[in-house]
């Protein structure tokens, strides 16, 4: 078992190079990561999660047309000066928060060769330290401590750690899937024995989906460098983790933390809208008013879908 302590994980990698084609035309000129979830871009929720886990060094793997990400996590002196003149301290704090979350760095992926390739681009920045990987499509509720639990599991067992979540069996083909075995004395931490990317539900080893949170041993870089393109012609992180799970080599081995909390999938349009509504009803400024309006609106003809010929044409 590794002697690594939770404090060893001080860097996070956030892959953000995707084209966001499911959100076209909105994502034609705006990175999908900058689409607002209530009043913050989706990517800020992810960086805030890393900060809550004590991680203040973040590397984003980006691509073309992602300059807005860099602008968002930079200071906006003109805007801040204008808010100071207006004595609008509340908005000033909100504007400054994204720049105060930690040290956010950026590197381009270069070629769209998959999640494994994006993670490999972080090698020079990460070095020989364990590190977290957070996917921007998965927002974990701010009341949850998933990342902290994963870092603690890394401290107990070493190797790499993946986040797992039970999904309906007929949806497992949308995810990486893990075969697991129990660990003595653990309820929601399991040993991962095998992994497969987007399996046929009839052949899936379980209904445990790999969701977008990882704590990786630095040995993953060597494995990724030797991993051939897999599903979709891309270098799959799942394939590299499978090698680690089955190798027994130093730094190898994979455990999973089974997450049973609130997760918001902003990767497709319907789930994105659900995430906006669920977070809006809890918003400290507008939540109560929005919740009242929503409860009243769903009983109207429009809210109940009883109006004809009112659907937007897309």
From TrEMBL:
SUPFAM superfamilies: Nucleotide-diphospho-sugar transferases. It is an enzyme of class 2 (transferase). The keyword Nucleotidyltransferase applies. Keywords: Nucleotidyltransferase, Transferase. Its EC number is 2.7.7.9. InterPro entries: GalU_uridylyltTrfase_bac/arc, NTP_transferase_dom, Nucleotide-diphossugar_trans. GO terms for molecular function: UTP:glucose-1-phosphate uridylyltransferase activity. GO terms for biological process: UDP-alpha-D-glucose metabolic process. Residues 11-277 form the Nucleotidyl transferase domain. It catalyses: alpha-D-glucose 1-phosphate + UTP + H(+) = UDP-alpha-D-glucose + diphosphate. The keyword Phosphoprotein does not apply. Belongs to the UDPGP type 2 family. This is UTP--glucose-1-phosphate uridylyltransferase. It comes from Calidifontibacter indicus.
């Amino acid at each position: 078992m590794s002697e690594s302590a939770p404090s060893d994980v001080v860097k996070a990698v956030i892959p953000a190079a995707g084209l966001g084609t499911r959100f076209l035309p909105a994502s034609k000129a705006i990175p999908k990561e900058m689409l607002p979830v209530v009043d913050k871009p989706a990517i800020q929720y992810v960086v805030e999660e890393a900060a809550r886990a004590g991680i203040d060094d973040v590397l984003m793997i980006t691509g073309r047309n992602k300059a807005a990400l860099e602008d968002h996590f930079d200071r906006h002196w003109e805007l801040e000066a204008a808010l100071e003149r207006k004595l609008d301290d509340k908005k000033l704090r909100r504007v400054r928060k994204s720049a105060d979350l930690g040290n956010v760095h950026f590197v381009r992926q270069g070629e769209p060769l998959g999640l494994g390739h994006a993670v490999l681009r972080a090698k020079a920045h990460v070095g020989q330290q364990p590190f977290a990987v957070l996917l921007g499509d998965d927002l974990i509720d701010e009341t949850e401590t998933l990342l902290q639990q994963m870092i603690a599991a890394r401290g107990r067992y070493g190797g790499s750690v993946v986040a797992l979540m039970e999904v309906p069996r007929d949806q497992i083909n949308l995810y990486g899937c893990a075969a697991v075995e129990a660990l003595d004395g653990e309820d929601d931490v399991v040993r991962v024995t095998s992994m497969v990317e987007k399996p046929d539900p009839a052949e899936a080893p379980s209904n445990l989906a790999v969701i977008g949170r990882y704590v990786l041993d630095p040995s993953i870089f060597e494995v990724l460098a030797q991993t051939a393109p897999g599903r979709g012609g891309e270098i799959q992180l799942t394939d590299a983790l499978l090698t680690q799970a089955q190798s027994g080599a130093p730094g190898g081995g994979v455990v999973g933390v089974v997450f049973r909390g609130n997760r918001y999938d902003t990767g497709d349009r319907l789930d994105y809208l659900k995430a906006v509504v669920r977070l809006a009803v809890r918003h400290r400024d507008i939540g109560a008013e929005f919740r009242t309006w929503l409860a009243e609106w769903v009983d109207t003809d429009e809210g109940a879908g009883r109006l004809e010929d009112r659907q937007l044409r897309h």
